[in-house]
Write a structure and sequence with these properties.
Structural class: alpha/beta
Strand order of the largest sheet: 10-11-12-13-15-14
Low-confidence stretches: 365-370
Radius of gyration: 24 Å
Number of helices: 21
Helix content: 40-55%
Largest sheet: 6 strands, mixed
Shape: globular
Number of strands: 15
């Protein structure tokens, strides 16, 4: 260990840290010499509560290490910066419950692990130096330490480092680690921490978060959860209808504050936090997203995938083909890009692991893995739009809503059912003129059809086609999300306005 080298790095890093992190917590007010704190994403509240419980000595052993994965550009560095200055983000109504944070009686360290990597300093060596510099032993220290590690995957032995740290400080609850990584590949594949940490994923923006970050417009607290529960947790369709009818005034009151067509602007350009400042320049956003995709390929996939240069060079073309198609016949793509099936399947698996794509399989009773056509949806419709340079027809525009519904499923519906210990699964109907999705929630099957300007009769026909596939199933119902009014169409089919989908 080169102690002098690490000390020089540490002193320089600490001297410039405030200046570096303040760029992630403030924004300039146009025309004024003032700065305001950036709004936070919903997940910030989750970590703020964990930090307060940690400071009050209430965390469990397994809560000592938190790992946050997610697609590049979703705001992980901003989240850590906001946690570093957590006391600045405590709202007036929270002060009585978050006194421990406001007292700021704890040590904190933020590290960009990619900077350590650039200096050829390992996490293990840095923390040996850090303990000496602070004159502590983490096994026994009575001082509380919040340690924030950004892009931890840049250290080749990050998993072993955290595992060893957890094991040697097992009896001490005075250390809290929160680590992020842009490469979901390495973070999800590393087995060392499966029983020693809590993992979360930061997803692209939902519409309500977009409105908060861009326009400082806040939907009524709890409205998203109320809509989710009304639609997916009621067994009887009439109960869902009544619950949604009761929520309609809240939804309408909020929508009256919004400018026309803002939903489409969000879908096309506003799906990632780092894009929001550039919404008036579509071409610049396309360049930003293309750069993000390039980094996913060259830094995330290339760093772990055992692929030759030729398959790697074809990934962007594969993504372009996926952006143009509704359902993916892998054999046809193999023929088009001249790759064998095994290599293509491996590439697609990696793209799913990075968080760029969702894989939606054809419905079957056992959800068996077959070579039937597969839906690959993008984790944000803005990514699909950018890959096509904004040149989209009505069919592609409709797929934006499918991308968005997949995000809602993986981010919220799955989380809701998991919290209630209810089985859930998402698939699609591969039969001709079938519904966009088939959800399985507990023992209920829900056919879902989504579209702009979709005629109710067309949606009904597709739902009924899917029902014919499910005729041997009990407890089936259909949901059409469209631009018509809220109404029950038939005993087990409901039409729900798109505004409810956007505010989930």
């Amino acid at each position: 260990m080169d102690t002098v080298k690490i000390e020089n790095f540490y002193r320089l890093w600490i001297s410039r840290l405030d200046e570096f992190l303040e760029n992630y917590i403030y924004y300039e007010i146009p025309g004024e010499k003032k700065r305001k704190l950036l709004p936070t994403r919903y997940i910030f509240s989750y970590y703020l509560k964990i930090l307060n419980r940690f400071l009050e000595g209430e965390i469990d052993e397994l809560e000592k290490i938190h790992i946050l994965t997610g697609l590049r550009g979703t705001g992980k560095t901003t989240l850590l910066a906001q946690l570093y200055y957590a006391d600045k983000f405590v709202k007036e109504k929270q002060k009585s419950k978050l006194q421990a944070i406001l007292k700021s009686d704890y040590e904190k360290l933020y590290l960009d692990v990619s900077r350590l990597k650039g200096e050829n300093i390992s996490l293990n060596d840095f923390f040996k130096f850090y303990e000496t510099a602070k004159n502590i032993h983490f096994e026994s220290t009575n001082r509380k330490f919040l340690i924030l590690l950004d892009e931890i995957h840049y250290d080749d032995n990050w998993g072993l480092f955290l595992k060893s740290f957890y094991d040697r400080t097992k009896a001490n609850k005075n250390i809290l680690f929160i680590a992020t990584g842009s490469s979901a590949l390495k973070l999800k594949m590393n087995p060392d921490l499966s029983r020693r940490s809590i993992s979360n994923e930061l997803y692209p923006l939902k519409f309500n978060e977009f409105l908060i970050l861009k326009h400082n417009l806040y939907p009524e607290p709890g409205l998203s959860d109320e809509i989710l529960n009304a639609i997916f947790m009621n067994k009887e369709l009439k109960e869902s209808y009544q619950a949604l009818k009761d929520l309609l005034p809240k939804v309408n009151n909020f929508y009256h504050k919004l400018e026309p067509n803002i939903e489409m602007r969000f879908l096309e350009l506003g799906g990632l936090p780092f894009l929001i400042k550039s919404l008036n320049n579509a071409n610049l956003i396309f360049e930003f997203i293309e750069g993000m995709v390039d980094k996913i390929i060259t830094k995330d996939i290339l760093s772990i995938a055992k692929l030759k240069a030729e398959p790697i060079s074809k990934i962007k073309y594969i993504l372009f083909l996926l952006a143009n198609s509704e359902i993916t016949d892998l054999q046809k793509i193999c023929s088009t890009v001249k790759l064998d099936y095994k290599t293509l399947r491996k590439i697609l698996d990696y793209l799913v692991l990075t968080g760029l794509l969702y894989e939606i399989r054809s419905f079957s009773g056992k959800f068996s893995k077959t070579r039937k056509p597969i839906k690959f949806l993008f984790s944000s419709p803005s990514i699909r739009n950018a890959l096509l340079k904004g040149v989209i027809g009505s069919e592609v525009r409709g797929r934006f809503l499918e991308d968005y519904f997949a995000l809602i499923y993986f981010k919220d519906i799955k989380k809701l059912t998991d919290s209630k210990k209810i089985f859930s699964q998402i698939a699609y109907d591969s039969s001709e003129q079938g519904a966009d999705f088939i959800l399985t929630i507990d023992k209920e099957y829900i056919a879902v059809e989504i579209g702009f300007n979709k005629k109710v009769q067309d949606g009904l026909r597709q739902i009924k086609n899917t029902f014919s596939r499910l005729k041997k199933k009990s407890n089936i119902k259909g949901i059409i999300f469209g631009e018509d009014e809220l109404k029950i169409l038939e005993d087990n089919i409901i039409h729900i306005p798109l505004k409810f989908l956007f505010l989930m």
